[in-house]
Amino acid sequence: GRLNADNARFLLLAVLIVLYMLCGAAVFSAIELPTEREAKERWEERLENFTRRHNLSLAELRHFLREYEEASVAGIRVDDIRPRWDFTGAFYFVGTVVSTIGFGMTTPATVGGKIFLIFYGLIGCAGTILFFNLFLERLITVIAYVMKSCHERQLRRKGVLPHDGRRGSGASEVDSLAGWKPSVYYVMLILCVASLIISCCASAMYTPIEGWSYFDSLYFCFVAFSTIGFGDLVSSQNIRYESQGLYRFGNFVFILMGVCCIYSLFNVISIVIKQSINWILKKLACKCCHRCQRRLFRSRRNVVMPGNVRSRRNISIETDAVNESDTDGRRLSGEMISMKDFLASNKVSLAIMQKQLSESANGYPRQMSSNLKQNGFSGGVGALAIMNNRLAETSVDR
Q1: Higher-confidence residue: 161 or 112?
Q2: Can you tell me where the transmembrane regions are (predicted)?
């Protein structure tokens, strides 16, 4: 049961993720594809004009552009920027590695650097994920403590809890608060607000220093804090900044705080998604069970059921399972009704039969009235006498 529920949850989540990806691909394709086609047309037109103006072949120009792309991967740009692999640049790079951001604007070009990156990233990413998990635990503890304090203050204002902390009439409420936990929705709301505040403050810093628009700065914050790391916008890449040391420190602090908050928010949202999936599975299971029970009822509506007759509206999974287990032996033996059900439904008749058999054996047969004799039913002995007497009584009643 537990394994089947986990498998069902896993399959449903996989299907929902695939559908989510298909919808996202359709939306992004509809939005971005026209702009990409227009940019490609403008680029082809510029290439043709450039080759015509300078009397160059298009193949030679494309070969030159491919060489520039290779130089760009190595960190060479047209504009003057700071070296990618000085100590500060390398420290920024390892920060993007262990945080799994991976902007992509700086990548190792040597074989030794690529091999070292594999082992370095393996340990660094694992350690950073552990740090994020521990940070999440402590953050949830702080949030729970603050929310519990606020909850106790509200109870004291309403007079449910004593103000001096003594156990009086509110002792049960105090005991109930010992295991009190905040709602996951409140935690998610607090983390959303904290992430939004950090992103807005960081964007206010990036906009004047990097020369981006405020919306681009917010976009960079989400891409960086969520560790997506496209690399189209990367902070701290110019060769000189005003108050360069202070800016780089602020950049490091904002990225660290933003990644921790967004990572914690993702974990809380995953809990909400899991609850939603469980709710969907429960609804689907209830519908399937109701359908199966209706079919089972239709297939058995002409069968005489011993004992108490179950009403159709009271059928449930538990009761149906219990009743099915009680009739397993009956179905295996091919009997229409089991001896257990027969004895249970005829307990009173068997008691009367036992009493009358005892009277007959002891020489005290039941006296037949004249009306019974006139009906033609003789007394008999034992079970035959009981049957005749019962038939006679029925005939008299009629």
Answers
A1: 112
A2: 12-33, 90-111, 117-147, 184-206, 212-234, 246-266
